[in-house]
Design brief:
Blueprint lengths: L5 E7 L4 H10 L6 E8 L5 H8 L3 E4 L7 H12 L4 E4 L8 H4 L6 E5 L11 H7 L4 E8 L9 E8 L6 H24 L3 E4 L2 E4 L8 E3 L1
Parallel strand pairs: 1-2, 1-4, 2-3, 4-5, 7-10
Antiparallel strand pairs: 5-6, 6-7, 8-9
Bound molecules: 5-O-phosphono-beta-D-ribofuranosylamine (GRF).
């Protein structure tokens, strides 16, 4: 790799297993991105403990009861200069106030094969609909709910005996492989977007989908 690593801020609200996957990938100095800051809107989120253990700066910016614009302005001021923003279990919809500061540079991971089952409870929705495949999607974030251009997807089978918890756990397994893979592409400047379709300059042996 040549040049500086891309600086990445990660926004979290919960346990942070996807954050952990990103931290683990970035612990390799040859990985093209470094996680420089982790911000949560939920005081005490366990993800903060993961960031601190990795020596990454953290901050808490509560969103509860705070007007959306005020929250997003505070978030922007705290994040400072980063090249990419990764949402990793961040349970707030972002508006153009925030997104306008990082055009085409905000990534999200969602536990469903978009465009099916946007919003909350992706695994539960897949079960309720009788889907036989479920999975996860990493996409660019636009002002909609899980509507931005799809970058990569990982699929897993839905088993007859699955509960929401077992299916969600299987999906998380592919999430942890998918997110670092896409962050690499982003950091290396290999993503372009035409309309709502994203393209990735893939290298030999790479693909935009995985199975679990
Ligand atoms: C994951 O299922 C992710 O797809 C969704 O929120 C969950 C976060 O899990 N956006 P974790 O906090 O990364 O463990």
């Amino acid at each position: 790799m040549s040049g500086a690593r891309a600086r990445v801020g990660v926004l979290v609200s919960g346990g942070g297993t996807n954050l952990q996957a990103l931290l683990d990938a970035a612990a390799d100095p040859t990985f093209p991105a470094e996680i420089v800051r982790v911000v949560t809107n939920v005081p005490g989120a366990y993800a903060l403990t993961r960031a601190e253990a990795a020596g990454v700066a953290t901050s808490t910016i509560p969103s509860k009861g705070v007007p959306r614009e005020d929250f997003e302005r505070a978030l922007l001021a705290d994040l400072g200069a980063v090249d990419w923003v990764c949402l990793a279990g961040f349970m707030r919809v972002l508006t153009p106030t925030f997104l306008g500061a990082f055009p085409g540079r905000v990534l999200n991971i969602h536990p469903a094969l978009l465009p099916a089952f946007p919003g909350t409870h992706g695994p539960r929705q897949a079960l309720e609909h009788g889907a036989v495949q479920a999975g996860a999607t990493v996409h660019l974030v636009d002002a909609g709910v899980d509507t931005g251009p799809i970058l990569a997807q990982g699929s897993v089978p839905v088993l007859d005996e699955d509960t929401e918890a077992t299916l969600a756990a299987r999906i998380l397994g592919v999430e942890h492989r998918l997110y670092p893979m896409v962050l690499r592409w982003a950091a290396e400047g290999r993503i372009t977007v035409e309309g709502r379709r994203a393209k990735v300059a893939l290298r030999a042996g790479e693909a935009r989908w995985i199975t679990g």
